[in-house]
Amino acid sequence: MSGQGSVWQTVRRCLAILQRLQRGPADKAELMDAVKAVEGEDAYGRGPREVQDKRFHRDLEALRHRLDVEVRFDQRAGGYRILNTARGLLDLPDDVLEALAFLEDTFTPETPHYEEVSLLVETLRSFLSPERLRDLARCRSALEVDLRKLDEGCIATDVWEAVERAYLERRVLRFEYRSPAWESELPRCCEVEPYAHFFDTVRRHYYLRGYCRWEEVPDQGRQQEVAAYRLYRLDRIVAGSVEVMPEKLPPGRPRARKRTLVYELAPQVARLRDVTRHFEEMAVEYRDDGSALVTAQVEDVFLAVRTLLHYGPNCRVLGDETMLREMRQEVAEMARMYGLVE
């Protein structure tokens, strides 16, 4: 194929690059192969590799300056990715936007197939223009208005707006947070990648689920790496402390560290063979005596243990060691509180 420098050849190569990047990050060789798969082996000419590389980088410049799509190499992602697009790569009808908003508010971390649905929603959102993202926000607001009234806490307006903006625009958040789990009453500064924003109908609070990069411990005067997913109650985020950072999130999400939770349920709750699926990745083995052995993959030890506590004496945690240690500690503290042990 000739005319590698013609306008339409450049446009077609750029479109091939964008189509490949919509599937996820890719290195230079993968992007050039994607172009050649569409435009032919001589899409970048048959000259020296250095000449082909220059044409490839000119295509990236054309994407940035002519199509307003910024493609950069991301070390963490291990390849090039779409960093920003002023025009959007996708548009959706209004009723589809409403369906997307419904998925965002309906699927919470405790919902089956949450990870898959969240990835779908995040991918579609990342391709929408800023204008359509605002339309999506209005769709979500219509769903959220009644739920927000049900929140038993008081969410500051600036907190709500910042969390909503960071979530929609896929930007890093920094805020001060108070938690009763911390002995010090001083709030901690946290830097978080926001990945979910939902109302928990059981706990009756709005939560932000994010990947916490680090926390700043006031008593120690230093930052400590966290690198784990956390749930943050919006009413516990300190008003006036929230900052939406310029940094945009890479496609996908950091992998969560999962633990294998193993527990057995007594016949009193398992003999009908309809054990509740509290966890997304969960396998149940029903025994002849009516009991059940459950194996699940969980991210949050704290929430997993407290989910099982409602079974009372009809549930016994067997592993892993971290999960077992957490359950033993909870049971021991309850026994001391009720005067069963000293």
Walk me through the structure:
This protein is α+β, with helices and mostly antiparallel strands and 342 residues long. The chain has 3 domains: 79 residues, Arc Repressor Mutant, subunit A (Orthogonal Bundle), CATH 1.10.10; 155 residues, no CATH class; 79 residues, Alpha-Beta Plaits, CATH 3.30.70. The protein has a 5-stranded antiparallel β-sheet with strand order 6-5-4-3-7. Strands 9-10-8-11 form a 4-stranded antiparallel β-sheet. Strand 5 and strand 6 form a beta hairpin. Helix 1 crosses helix 2 and helix 9 crosses helix 10. It is globular, with a radius of gyration of 25 Å. The mean pLDDT is 86.
Outline the secondary-structure elements.
Elements: H1 7-21, H2 28-39, H3 49-66, E1 69-74, E2 79-85, H4 94-106, H5 114-126, H6 130-150, H7 157-169, E3 171-177, E4 188-200, E5 205-217, E6 222-233, E7 243-248, E8 259-265, H8 267-270, E9 281-286, E10 292-298, H9 301-308, E11 315-319, H10 321-337
Antiparallel strand pairs: 1-2, 3-4, 3-7, 4-5, 5-6, 8-10, 8-11, 9-10
Helix pairs in contact: 1-2, 1-3, 4-6, 9-10
